[in-house]
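Dear colleague,

Thank you for sharing your sequence with our group. We've completed the structure prediction you requested, and as agreed, I am returning the results in plain text so they can be pasted directly into your records. Please verify that the sequence below matches your submission; if there's any discrepancy, let me know and we will rerun it promptly.
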Amino acid sequence: MPTFSLTAINVGTFNLGEADKIITLFSREKGIHRAVAKGARKPGARISGKSELLNVNRLLLAKGKNLDIITQCENIETFANLRHDLTRLTYALYYAELTQVFGPGLADESERYFDRLCLSMGLMAASGRDPALLCLEFEFALLQMLGIKPELNFCVGCRDPLTEKNLTAFNYELGGLVCQKCFHRMRRLAAASEIVEEEAEEYAIESQEENIRLGLAARSGARSEAMDGQRTNVYVTPLVWKRMVLANIGSEQIDMEINPNQPQDARALVGATVAARRVMQSYIEYKAGKRMRALDLLADLI
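Please find the predicted structure tokens below.
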């Protein structure tokens, strides 16, 4: 049976049968890959601990008919400190969830992304830096590799340079920040569109009632649901914008700005970092078309 080796981090697992596991891996060599860990759920099995989430392993796999089978597993890193801090562990699980969602699009960047993911896990486990800031930096790195990193320096509507005076909102659909002029223009267009949609819906209801009166089959309204209820803009303050810009370039200045001798200012900066991360997570969810499950727990922790 042909075999091959991978160096990979476990980013997802689910049970198979009575004793096995299917592990979702992100490998340095192939990107996203799924394999079976035989007997991983048996008490005392050698592979049991190595098959847990967030472990980095060197693996030998045998080619299977549907899924490859892990035949040997050597543990490289466990990020043990994460298990002692629920907040940091949850952020790390968020990294794993993002990897499962976006991993298929990172095949050409597998080596680079694997190294960045392991580095980010290590920083989350061992660094004393703010975990929300570390997460924000990771999100920007992921979006950069995916080719959908948002525009932070120029308005995505008119391409004018952004300043504290003209900055207004982040637009998920356009993928970046918009100036005040473009924001108000978009609001006017959205308001006009809503009026047209309401008139179309009223017409559809009237048509449906007429069809029912005439004994014809009722037809559904023609209103488009593509963006129904979807908020595409969120206000961004200058301080939140600055945190995003600094996190995007990985500047250590973002940590140096927090002065413990000025607790009020420090709280404002930490709050701005959290707000910036939430803007980015919303943008990521918009691009993914789904909500990240790990974020529900994060919302309760921060």
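Summary note from our side: The chain has two domains: 3-78, 82-177+231-301.

Kind regards,
the structure core
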